[in-house]
Amino acid sequence: MVDLYSAALVSTSIALAAILSIRFRVSSAIFEVTAGIILSNFLGVQIESWLDFLGTFGGLMLTFLAGAEIETRLMKKNLKPSLVIGTMSFLAPLLGVVFFLTIFTDWPLITKVAASLALTTTSVAVVYAVLTEYDLLKLQIGSVIIAVTFVNDIMTLIGINILSPSFNLYTLLFFAIILSMILIIPRMLKYVFIKYGRRSVEIELRLILALILGVALIADVGKLHAVFGVFLLGFLFANSIQKYDEIRSKMRTITFALLSPAFFIKAGLLISLPTVANNIALVLGILAAKLLSKFAGTYLLCKKWIPEGAAFSTLMFSTGLTVGIITATLGFELGLLDRTQFSIIVISVILSAIVPTIIAKKYIPKKI
């Protein structure tokens, strides 16, 4: 039976988070995680089975949409700078945060790596929001920043996936299905949309949701982790789904109205405020390690390839949110992070979405 007390508080929190995000022009994910922290630490809300499912599904949908947003045309156009800067944007904080944690903690090596992977990301959501706000998305600088962001996040998802490798026959089945979908998806989506599209039963959406859960299951039993499988599926859908704005719009509505908030509130429910308060110096140290290492790894490269906005671009690459929390959550579910470590890392990830964004507004490049 659904706990109506928890359900009422969670649904109210989702609505309030949306209002606050619009009012303060900050990603709603930040307010949703904050709501989860308050609900858990002050109002006695726990992760019920229904919220656990919605949160898990929300993480999968966010990962799918991240893959589906990748434009191969954009990647090809900016291939060299996106690969070079994206690689350094991933490696620099990975090494920097591991180095910091080695000095200041006694965490096991695999825990340090899992924690650092969550801090390597660049937030697609934050980058999109800022570039759109300042009309930079369609300019060359915007194209390069977006391409770098995709490369960075792809490497993060691959990294967390291979951190605990264990392959079997289902692994081969997964890759066989993925390869076959390269040919099947464009034709299937076109056929379904033309024949059954724009109907109240939303067959095209039901089919995509079924594919997401099916691929997630096969990837999971194939020891590749569900988020990796769903990200690849999203990437395969990218070129096709971008042709049908109706489908993409409806999927975003489903995700950002319910599933995404459930994921972030669930993450917030796992965070212990006393733990964060007792480790605030460590949280700030991890944040500083990420920001400084991102700057050291990418600033000179940005000056070379994005000279009109090197400081701005570097700060954008320093943001982290959705994929960072997904990575931390997966690390927690795999037993690589305990609740204390998870709380410290997620708070650090959230701060990395806020601090660079505030500073970046002082370095907005001229629209040329």
Automatic annotation (TrEMBL):
High-level lineage: Archaea, Thermoproteota, Methanosuratincolia, Candidatus Methanomethylicales, Candidatus Methanomethylicaceae
Keywords of this entry: Antiport, Ion transport, Membrane, Sodium, Sodium transport, Transmembrane, Transmembrane helix, Transport
Location within or outside the cell: Membrane
Classification via Gene3D superfamilies: 1.20.1530.20
Domain of life: Archaea
InterPro entries: Cation/H_exchanger_TM, Na+/solute_symporter_sf
Membrane spanning stretches: 6-22, 53-70, 82-103, 109-131, 143-163, 169-189, 201-218, 224-241, 253-274, 280-302, 309-330, 342-360
Annotated GO MF terms: antiporter activity
Membrane topology type: Multi-pass membrane protein
A Pfam match: Na_H_Exchanger
Cellular component annotations (GO), alphabetically ordered: membrane
Entry's Gene Ontology BP terms: proton transmembrane transport; sodium ion transport
Location of the Cation/H+ exchanger transmembrane domain: 13-359
Organism: Methanosuratincola subterraneus
Protein name: Cation/H+ exchanger transmembrane domain-containing protein
